[in-house]
Sequence to fold (189 residues):
Amino acid sequence: MKITSAKFIKGVVGDDEILGNGIPQIAFIGRSNVGKSSVINSLTGVKDLARTSSFPGRTQEINLFLINNKFYLVDLPGYGYAKMSNAGRDAIADLINSYFFHSTYEQEKVVLIIDANVGFTDKDLGMLRTLEEHGKNVIIVANKVDKLKTNEFRKQMKKIEDMTLGHVIVPYSAMKKTGIKELLKEIFN
Ligand code: GTP
Ligand code: MG
Fold:
């Protein structure tokens, strides 16, 4: 599958008809600043499609991008941003939960992005377990592998694999644009 067109459709902040309109969705979730928006840009080859920032908390809405006029890539706000107010964090958590666990919204695949350098945090594991409990089809992306030297890379990947038995893990660098082919294959197979 090749991505030939990508366009921003809408940002939503809660229930919205568009989320239940039957067009298949691939959702991107992960801690704030882990590179969800950057991964979407690198996958589509459109540099500024999704807004990115070096500061956590950039994406505040559920952003839908229509790909090949056939399906949506869904860019979600990140969880676990420590410096956000409690109310802000609760609002983001509510938004994420209401999207994933709404009875009429469905995701074809959920791409859970973690930082290859950091590995699974407690929050990442919590998210993974919750997605599993709801029967979601999860692909794990270990982003920012460009930060790791070869021997560290091996060690980190082994650790990540040990914690996620049964899931596909795709090493990725949105910055260096590596792992794109592998991730597209996992999303569309
Ligand atoms: P929120 O929307 O705030 O949750 O963040 P996000 O997960 O969408 O992250 P975003 O794509 O905005 O990227 C956050 C920061 O990480 C930016 O400074 C990016 O340039 C950087 N970044 C993203 N991917 C990579 C990568 O593969 N390697 C490196 N070294 N940096 C990356
Ligand atoms: Mg973002």
